[in-house]
What we know:
The structure holds two protein chains of two kinds.
Chain A: H1 7-16, H2 23-40, H3 75-79, E1 85-86, E2 89-90
Antiparallel strand pairs in A: 1-2
Helix pairs in contact in A: 1-2
Chain B: H1 2-6, H2 9-17, H3 23-41, E1 44-47, H4 49-64, E2 76-80, H5 107-114, E3 118-123, H6 157-164, E4 170-175, H7 181-187, E5 190-193, E6 213-218, H8 221-231, H9 249-252, E7 261-265, H10 275-290, E8 294-298, E9 306-307, E10 313-314, H11 316-332, H12 352-363, H13 366-379, H14 385-408, E11 411-415, H15 431-435, H16 442-447, E12 451-458, E13 464-470, H17 476-488
Parallel strand pairs in B: 2-3, 2-4, 7-8, 7-11
Antiparallel strand pairs in B: 1-3, 4-6, 5-6, 5-12, 9-10, 11-13, 12-13
Helix pairs in contact in B: 3-4, 6-7, 8-17, 11-13, 11-14
Amino acid sequence: MSKTIDLDLVRHIGKLSRIALSEQEVGTFAAQLAGILEYFGKLQELDTEGVEPMAHAVQLHNVLADDVPGESLTPEQALANAPDRDGDFFKVPKVIGDSQ
Amino acid sequence: MTAILDLSAVELRDAISRGELSAVEAARAYLAAIEKTEPQVQAFNEVHADRALGRAAQIDADRAAGKPPGPLAGVPLAVKDNLCMTHGRTTCSSKMLADFRAPYTATAVAKLEDAGAVILGKTNLDEFAMGSSTENSGFRPTRNPWDLSRVPGGSSGGSAAAVAARQCAAALGSDTGGSIRQPAAFCGIVGLKPTYGRVSRFGLVAYGSSLDQIGPLTRDVTDAALLTRAIAGHDERDSTSVPRDVPDYLASVDKPIEGLRVGLPGEFFSDALDAEIGAAIRAAAGAYESAGAKLVDVSLPHSRIDRDADGKLSSYAVACYYIVAMAEASSNLARYDGVHYGHRTAGKVEDIVELFSRSRAEGFGPEVKRRIMLGSYTLSAGYYDAYYNKALKVRRLIQNDFDRAFEACDVILAPASPTPAFRLGEKTSDPLTMYLADIYTISVNLAGLPGLTVPAALGRDGLPIGMQLIGPVFSEETLFRAARMYEQAGGVRRLTPPAMAP
Lengths: 100, 502
């Protein structure tokens, strides 16, 4: 499965990933990602018909905890690393803008 | 003072517990060593000198007051900087977290401190543990103490270099695809990736959650047994940690294994392997045979390593691993949004999506961006089955291969890396070439197995060559005993880089 990556696709993946890309990055990543995806395509050679996908190596059954409140971070601890805050809230720019 | 740096963690602990040496003297000796060699090696992101001396003084005071010393009493250790500590910063060597102060301490680190260890500081890594040379650090590359023009391996390169350079008695690292075992091999030390679930991941900054494990980097096998015993065990704050008793690895480490069956996977010994490394591993196999072990041919077809037409190393396991790891990374690293913690762009933004996108663009380095983007892509509609789901199926085939191999052998003997330590800059221009540095270690993470790297030999260029012992899940005790057999059968032990010798 040789996959060509055009510049628009890289811009699209950048958007999906919420990473703003410069035009120079778009060009560099297009070449690099194409090479890596081609390598990934190697797996298509393998017959995996009927094989159960394995997301985790160690089988664990449902791990349940008692439904009792435990220790958690105080608002002050949770906000200590916040780039911006307003009282006990994380502060962000306007979310619902005129442009939406 | 120099004699202190010669002691292993076990010997230090014994000397301090018996009162022959104070914890403060040990901490001072290591802090002085850091001061001396750090300008060349650059293993540390942060050294916590005052806190270390304070903790050491407390251990000495406790001993004087008759309190029984812990199993790591006064042993000076270093911790990879993707393990949270409430003291100092936890940066993951990323500009994204350059000023991040964790609100809690990782369980593995807390357990070491409870056992009496003295943490000297936090070590450098490839940004968010993504890399195989520590050159992806957002701050600076770490150098290999054996040859300062070479990399220490990665991503736990800071921890491996610090142990090899005698800047600490031992260290903690994390291993998602080889990040403990490959740098241990490059630096001539011992490194264990425990069974998935053996050690709590609470407080380890997540990269690939189904693959990540915390483990020790030490000077010899006995020290690895000591540290693993201290950090292993169930933790209710990590639901993937397994409730299972932790054996006293230290008590059994010197007992040879009668009738040990050592498996040699033919797929790892193709002409893709560096000739000198192949010879060193075969010599180690010979040493096992002389010690009474039985050599068995085993097969790991889906981990097979070849060279393709243009000379590049080729392996299904590498493709499988990077698809799984990048998919998990793209999800895990979505948390860095410039809102809750971490870097926020100072530029003017129109809306919140631009705030996310600009903050992430400025905070992440190129390798982290590549992995997030590839993960987003392979998980996106239309490609999920072709890449991610396909990789999960191949992952099962890889595990099945190991299950079959362990019917015929107790441990698998394998290389730890395709080459000895390479030069800085040698692999940075092509990301795929760098990925192939993990080719002998990644299948172990995919299958959730424990893997132990120990020094096998010193090579022609004066660079250490590592070998890897792989066992079934929860066979750490067997791995330590088997590795100790090699140390005792004439294997190399406690190598010291000439430039770092006292």
